[in-house]
Amino acid sequence: MKAFQKVYTRIDNITKATIVLRADEVGNDELATVRDDKGSEKLAQVVKIMGDSVTLQVFAGTEGIATDSEVTFLGHAPRLRVSDDLSGRFFNAYGDPIEEGGKNMAADGMGGGPDGGDGEEREIGGPTVNPFRRLQPSELIATGIAGIDLNNTIVSGQKIPFFADPDQPYNAVMANVALRAKADKIILGGMGLSNDDFLYFKHVFENAGALDRIVSFVNTTENPPVERLLVPDMALTAAEYFAVDKGQKVLVLLTDMTLYADALAIVSNRMDQIPSKDSMPGSLYSDLAKIYEKAVQLPNGGSITIIAVTTLSGGDITHAIPDNTGYITEGQLFLRNDSDTGKVIVDPFRSLSRLKQLVIGKKTREDHPQIMNACVRLYADAANAKTKLENGFDLSDYDERTLKFAYDYSEKLLSIDVNIDITEMLDTAWTLLAKYFSKEEVGIKAELIDKYWQS
């Protein structure tokens, strides 16, 4: 096979992340190996073609590469060998097993997948599903977290991000979602994880006995940042196998998309491209969209649902990364620290699932929409009461009751450490409403009051 591969030994330009050379009959996204001065082969990928001038991003960096280094094109884009053997295992950004020291992708030009054994090799980063073949999302994805399931219900085939500050426990939330979610397969794509976070995910999944339905692709802080660019496509290629081929409901968890975008910026800057807003590449929107648009509900019953983490810099929602993400996705989930209870909650004011109306009251109990609206309205009244208190105004009896309700609502329903099913969430909400308010104050339809009021 080596005799048929194109080999070049003249490099025109070298930056910290890219090399440029002249080559013919090379495809976009094609892989290549570059031999450094120690004889090691570094994996690279074509990112730009202008005539016969080809630019490659070198995943491990260009240190040790000279202008006469040998460049060998492999004739294909990155690939993953897909099979049921993916389940229960951790892979690196190249699709090689982490826990078993699998062969490095750079050595043979393809992802190891499940030990290079049975299964079909598929190129990663392919096109999204034809819109004609998509169904309207209509199946509930329950996470056990009331701040999501009660107020911002997620639907199969949806794409939605967590917006969180870097110091919030978003990876713990992701791990809990993985364990609680009613899905056939969970695909974790970790980008720039610390070793502690990687080991946390690994131990949580192992201790819960849930590895048989979880597949993980991980890039840690010890790995080159540019490798992060492969992780979402690896994760989604595995997801497409289980959803399209097997008809399974797949939940893809991606963390952290801000670090993914930072890796895009590294390559873009090294290619001397003019940066757009916040030093991000001008292609940021399309780069993010090609990932998120893989979310789909399929006619065969399979689905791909994407929940991603986007960390914020100083809570700045206007930064290019969350700003572009908000245009692409179908809502967002905000994590914030609740000053009253001291717990991390899913903020009911800034969070939104744009597809929740497709399932609440239809796939959940009939009182779900009314309970959701009543609780959020009363929580807003509590926020107004808190403002009055801070400004030195006297509080009414109703104000006092809303503040007590808000505390219990945060602790028993909004907190991310609450793990109950939706029916229990609704019953808990009814109990809180009856504890602090009259039937007239909650503003819920009389027939639902008669049926569910916890007197």
Attribute tags:
single chain, 455 residues, alpha/beta, Elongation Factor Tu (Ef-tu), domain 3, Rossmann fold, 3 domains, 10-stranded mixed β-sheet, 7-stranded antiparallel β-sheet, 21 strands, elongated
The CATH topology of the largest domain, please?
Rossmann fold
Which regions are unreliable across 5 or more consecutive residues at pLDDT < 50?
100-110
Helix content, binned percent: 25-40%
Strand content: 15-25%
Determine the number of helices (DSSP H or I, runs of at least 4 residues): 13
Oligomer designation: single chain
Q: Strand count, sense and closure of the main sheet?
A: 10 strands, mixed
- Secondary-structure class: alpha/beta
**Termini gap:** 77 Å
Average residue-wise pLDDT: 89
Q: Quickly count the domains.
A: 3
What top-tier CATH class of the largest domain fits best? Alpha Beta
Name the shape in a single word: elongated
Number of strands: 21
**Rg calculated over all Cα atoms:** 25 Å
CATH architecture name of the largest domain? 3-Layer(aba) Sandwich
Task: Explain the overall architecture.
The chain has 455 residues and is an alpha/beta fold. The chain has three domains: 72 residues, Elongation Factor Tu (Ef-tu), domain 3; 279 residues, Rossmann fold; 85 residues, no CATH class. The chain has 13 helices and 21 strands. Strands 9, 13, 14, 15, 16, 17, 18, 19, 20 and 21 form a ten-stranded mixed β-sheet that branches. It has a seven-stranded antiparallel β-sheet with strand order 1-7-4-5-6-3-2. A two-stranded antiparallel sheet has the order 8-10. Strand 19 and strand 20 form a beta hairpin.
